[in-house]
Amino acid sequence: MSEGEAHRGYHDMGGDQAGAIDQEGHAYLLWEKRIDAMMVLLSGPEKKLIRVDELRRAIESLGPDVYEDLSYYERWTAAITALMLEKGVVSQAELDAKVAAMKAARGDAA
Amino acid sequence: MSTDHHHHDHDHEHIDHPDTDAGPWSEHRYIEGALRELLIEKGVVTAEEMRAQVERMEGRNPGLGARVVARAWTDPDYKARLLEDANAAVDELGIEIQPTHLIALENTPEEHNVVVCTLCSCYPRNLLGLPPDWYKARAYRSRVVREPRAVLREFGTELPDSTRIRVHDSTADMRYVVLPRRPEDTEGMSEEELAALVGRDAMIGVSVVTKD
């Protein structure tokens, strides 16, 4: 990134140098379809709980390391969760308890 | 805490076993499940709304865009309407429209159009379904605006030097779909036969439509 571009966010990558395009795709998993569906519903005309711009702001606030580390729908999950916490729709304690219960149900050590 | 972002130990490359639902789950897969269950418990969304929305998205695929392209190839008046107001033209075919502004970009011998979303992943989902992984990934988003000809070559698309390449950067409010050139020697083909030739990549602009 040149000096004149120092204000660019990490998501703003147009024109950057990058390697070959990996054309290998993957079939979307159900949880990925569900987080996509959740965003469509929460931002839709009936609920109006999240604006698309808020999702972008939340994704662009994850920080460059997290942004690079997470897959596409993991970013959405992190961003939508952050927005639901921010708006007080769910609490961190409720989320933690749910995750712990789901891990226990799957026999996945926390 | 469960939304701690500093987990570098999970592996995005693991193979899932959708038939048995075995295998490890990433932290965020659990968080999605937890958030969804909480939203349902609190009555923010219903399980049926979630199921129906997943099903609606699964029903969208590039075949819808191909119908639009084939109609534009066979009906000059429709093509004019498509280029004038793409949302209205898509609606005309009974295809669900998005609340965003849709622009159809016509490829000609002089000009070839390519679509990207450098900032994220904006895409005409109602016409093409969910975008391919490469559309959302760093390499394509970074490079296609700098060296589109080289990027097209990676997709096996060689255009004459005389063809200008225009790259269109989508936004949250504006989506693009490419109207590819109709292949030669297809005069006798029906609209349905023509639609079968039109693939997703040609409507993104990284490939062209061929007869075979």
Mind sketching the topology for me?
The complex is a heterodimer of chains A (110) and B (212).
Chain A (H helix, E strand, L loop, with lengths): L29 H14 L8 H8 L4 H6 L2 H15 L5 H15 L4
Helix pairs in contact in A: 1-4, 2-4
Chain B lengths: L26 H15 L5 H12 L3 H13 L1 H9 L1 H7 L8 E6 L4 E6 L8 H4 L4 H4 L1 H6 L4 H7 L9 E6 L4 E6 L11 H7 L2 H5 L8
Parallel strand pairs in B: 1-4, 2-3
Question: Beta-strand percentage of chain A?
Answer: under 5%
The CATH H-level superfamily of the largest domain in chain B is Nitrile hydratase alpha /Thiocyanate hydrolase gamma
- CATH topology term of chain A: Cyclin A, domain 1
Describe the largest sheet of chain B: 2 strands, parallel
Strand order of the largest sheet of chain B: 1-4
By CATH, the architecture of the largest domain in chain B is named: Alpha-Beta Complex
What is the CATH homology-level superfamily of chain A? Answer: Nitrile hydratase, beta subunit
**What's the total count of β strands of chain A?**
0
Q: What is the CA–CA distance across the termini of chain A?
A: 39 Å
CATH architecture of chain A: Orthogonal Bundle
Q: Biggest sheet of chain A, open or closed, and with what strands and sense?
A: none
Structural class, judged by helices and strands of chain B? Answer: alpha/beta
What is the chain-wise order of helices and strands of chain B?
HHHHHEEHHHHEEHH
